[in-house]
Amino acid sequence: MSPSTRPLLSLDRLTRAYGSLTAVNNVSLELPAGARHALIGPNGAGKTTLLNLVAGTDRPTAGRISWDGEDLTRTAPARRSRLGIGRSFQHPIGIGELSALENVVLACWRHHPERRAAWRRAERLRRLRATALEQLDAVGLADVAHRPAGALSHGQRRMLDLAAALAGRPRLLLLDEPAAGLTDRDIERLLEVLGRLPEDVAFVLIEHHIDVVAQLVDTVSVLVEGTMLRSGPTREVLSHPDVRTAYLGTTADDVDPGGPETNTGGERVADEGRR
Ligand SMILES: Nc1ncnc2c1ncn2[C@@H]1O[C@H](COP(=O)(O)OP(=O)(O)OP(=O)(O)O)[C@@H](O)[C@H]1O
Q1: Which residues form the ABC transporter domain (predicted)?
Q2: Are residues 73 and 13 in contact, defined by beta-carbon separation less than 8 angstroms?
Q3: Is the CB–ligand 1 distance for residue 44 below 6 Å?
């Protein structure tokens, strides 16, 4: 396959079993460069496990992961990160005692090609700080750059994590429920930031806010009990009767996956009420 036609990420019959529980079962998926993809499904469907397998923090029991044509199945997470797979987590991970800026400087440093030497020259350090500030500005945190991460609001900390993930200039960003716990205003900001990502940056989003999914992504995969129920264009998948029954908890036409004009109420799926 030529570099222009091969997928950026390819999952081939990926399975992850924990003892008798198969969290991810025979899942295949291909994503091109610049893909905007959502993973949805009920609680415990295997969404986070699948992201962990792609990030390399968990290993598949069977199946294969390819990245830009290269077999990544056994590659360590740090190398995946250097190859361009960035991620943000369900809960903020920034270091509370360090300022927002210092957190992002650290993230920039981790991805610096000359990591060990990056501190030695004042000029390099200045450049790292300038890049970090740009990232903070891009997510709307320039004003609080010098505040300790621990003193930021939940929404700001999540944006800080996003700035840190973007600092690695990822080609694929894995986002685990980025809108969880955010205010409507923070969600707007998140939509803006993700909507402004360069076209060739792909992301995979786990999200329970269906209106966020409908606004942000072109394609969706639905996982149920570890298996792929359906995968394809957002509108088609969200309106499929099987998806409505299995996940959205609706049987009638009371969910419109059409987009912001018709679905602005911050709708979360029925399943979420059980959390
Ligand atoms: N390290 C682990 N050891 C054992 N079981 C695990 C482990 N990680 C996940 N599981 C189980 O695998 C299943 C899938 O979990 P996972 O967190 O991937 O689901 P999810 O779709 O992300 O759920 P949620 O929407 O609640 O975050 C669950 O039954 C979970 O308890």
Answers
A1: 9-250
A2: no
A3: yes
Question: At residue 205, what is the residue type?
Answer: L
> Does ligand 1 have an atom closer than 6 angstroms to the CB of 18?
yes
C-alpha distances in Å from residue 175, one per residue of 87, 151, 161, 236: 6, 23, 10, 22
Compute the distance between CA of residue 237 and CA of residue 223 in angstroms, rounded to an integer.
Answer: 12
Q: What's the pLDDT score for residue 89? A: 67
Q: How far apart are CA 265 and CA 243, in angstroms?
A: 20
Per-residue pLDDT at 84? 92
CA of 143 to the centre of ligand 1 (A): 37
Q: Measure the CA–CA gap between 139 and 116, rounded to whole angstroms.
A: 28
The confidence score (pLDDT) of residue 143 equals: 94
Contact 266 CB / ligand 1 (< 6 Å) = no
Side chain identity at 202, as an amino acid letter? A
Q: Which atom of ligand 1 is nearest to the CA of 46?
A: 18
Higher pLDDT, 260 or 210: 210
ipTM of the complex: 0.97
Domain ranges of the chain: 1-84+170-275, 96-169
